[in-house]
């Protein structure tokens, strides 16, 4: 469902795509992802949306954010809000839906096809609006996880649903495992 001469834009809901790939047991290689969609059409922009904890000295997502920023992705970030829920658990809130929707609406007149990497049903009205403007919309997520990571309403609204698991061989890499350091063995001298 892609045409070589169409102008493409990618909109990646970072936490949603991460969760879907993790549910399928692989990590995304973003260099390969970008190359794959450059091959499918004229890629104008690749947006990546994520919230960041600002008060942490080290954020595990920071190296990815920096790499994406230096490798052709347009990064859209905002500070995540930390709070304690009624059960006393530390929670982090960092919804980027509004930022993604506004950017997609602004870019709509300049693209032919938008690829949304999210399964969040809140994006169904956005997809419908983009379609009314003449933009084709593909949604990338998965129905093969338990539970499925895409809302049925969003999948039905999209012009094209791309099963993330079917992209695994093209854009995936095996998940990193924590490496166990070998123990040093001390030998007694005779």
Question: Which helices and strands, and how do they pair?
Answer:
Blueprint: E1 7-13, H1 14-24, E2 27-28, H2 30-40, E3 42-52, H3 62-70, E4 74-79, E5 81-84, E6 90-93, H4 97-107, E7 113-117, H5 124-132, E8 136-141, H6 152-157, E9 160-163, H7 168-171, E10 172-173
Parallel strand pairs: 1-3, 1-7, 3-4, 7-8, 8-9
Antiparallel strand pairs: 2-10, 5-6
Entry summary:
By secondary structure, the protein is an alpha/beta fold. The protein has helices at 14-24, 30-40, 62-70, 97-107, 124-132, 152-157, 168-171, and strands at residues 7-13, 27-28, 42-52, 74-79, 81-84, 90-93, 113-117, 136-141, 160-163, 172-173.
Number of helices: 7
- CATH topology tier name: Rossmann fold
Biggest β-sheet strands, sense, barrel? 6 strands, parallel
Order of strands, widest sheet: 4-3-1-7-8-9
- According to DSSP, the number of beta strands is 10
Number of domains: 1
The percentage of residues in β strands lies in 25-35%
- CATH top level is Alpha Beta
Give the end-to-end Cα distance, rounded to a whole number of Å. Answer: 73 Å
Derived from helix and strand composition plus strand pairing, the structural class reads alpha/beta
- Tell me the helix content: 25-40%
Let me know the average pLDDT: 89
What is the helix/strand order? EHEHEHEEEHEHEHEHE
CATH architecture: 3-Layer(aba) Sandwich
Q: What form results from the Cα inertia axes?
A: globular
> Low-confidence stretches at least 5 residues in length (pLDDT < 50)?
178-190
Could you name the CATH homologous superfamily? 5'-nuclease
Radius of gyration: 19 Å
